[in-house]
Amino acid sequence: DIQMTQSPSSLSASAGDRVTITCRTSQSIYSYLNWYQQKPGKAPKLLIFGASNLQSGVPSRFSGSGSGTDFTLTISSLQPEDFAAYYCQQSHSVPWTFGQGTKVEIK
Amino acid sequence: EVQLVESGGGLVQPGGSLRLSCVASGFTFNNYWMSWVRQAPGKGLEWVANIKQDGSEEYFVASVRGRFTFSRDNAKNSLYLQMSSLRAEDTALYYCARLSEFQPYYYAMDVWGQGTTVTVSS
Q1: Taking a contact as any Cβ pair under 8 Å apart, which residues of chain B between 6 and 35 contact chain A?
Q2: At the N or C end, where does chain A have fewer CB atoms within 10 A?
Q3: What residues have CB less than 8 Å from B93, skipping those under 6 apart?
Q4: What is the pLDDT of residue B105?
């Protein structure tokens, strides 16, 4: 199985900050990497597919990059509605796996 | 409106069975692979299974092999998860999700239901 390691597991930031979350995989997954946002009590929401492609309707302050084993989700200017948990997920091979999540909290 | 609605969750004893349903609306259900994803209380997301448009292929996490059965009824726009031999570690919020192929072989879960809760406890 492909192991996913997200870091940090949590972070505190202020509105307007630039935030970066990383996801490392145990083997190359090319660009088969998706990012999801989950707010408390809500279902996950797709943000980024194929490592760097912004899902329709997602604000442009979100961006993804990387390929192979190292990936990054960046929020260029954190907004109040962005405080949530973020998960990476690989779709390269079954079993699909998620990172353990990164909780973005208000500083 | 594109929507997925799960149902069928509840409290069940260890070793028991439960059938979850997911009804789709607002899109052509039989055009899409579908997924089940679960989330244990206070924990992260765990992929459970993918089911092909016609139900002819399925892929699932090893921990449910021989205990969970996946099916769909495209005439009813419905996805099913038959769970048996349930264990405490199956306790979770179960989501169904639509799989979209954004580029060839690039799949992601782009529509999610609200989830249905399964609690396995005596």
Answers
A1: none
A2: C
A3: B38, B39, B41, B115, B116, B117, B118
A4: 87
CA A52/CA A64 separation, integer angstroms = 4
Alpha-carbon distance of A25 to A2, in angstroms, equals 7
Q: Rounded to 5 degrees, what are φ and ψ at B76?
A: -110, 5
A15-45: burial string, b at 16+ Cβ within 10 Å, e else: eeeebebbbbbeeebebbbbbbbbeeeebbb
* pLDDT interval class at B104 (50, 70, 90): confident
The reported pLDDT for the residue numbered A98 is 98
Q: Which residue, B106, B80, B83, is CA-closest to B10?
A: B83
Average pLDDT, chain A: 97
Degrees, nearest 5: CA angle A71-A88-B39: 165
Q: Which residues contact B47 (CB under 8 A, 6 or more apart)?
A: A89, A95, A96, A97, A98, B35, B36, B37, B61
Of A32, A43, A87, the CB nearest to B44: A87
Check CB contact under 8 Å for A98 and B102: no
Tokens of A102: 């990164």
If DSSP codes are grouped into helix, strand and coil, which group holds residue A50? coil
**C-beta of residue A97 within 8 angstroms of C-beta of residue B47:** yes
Q: From the candidates B4, B100, B101, B112, which should be mutated to test the interface with A, based on the most A CB atoms within 10 A? A: B112
pLDDT of residue B103: 86
Tokens representing A7?
């870091």
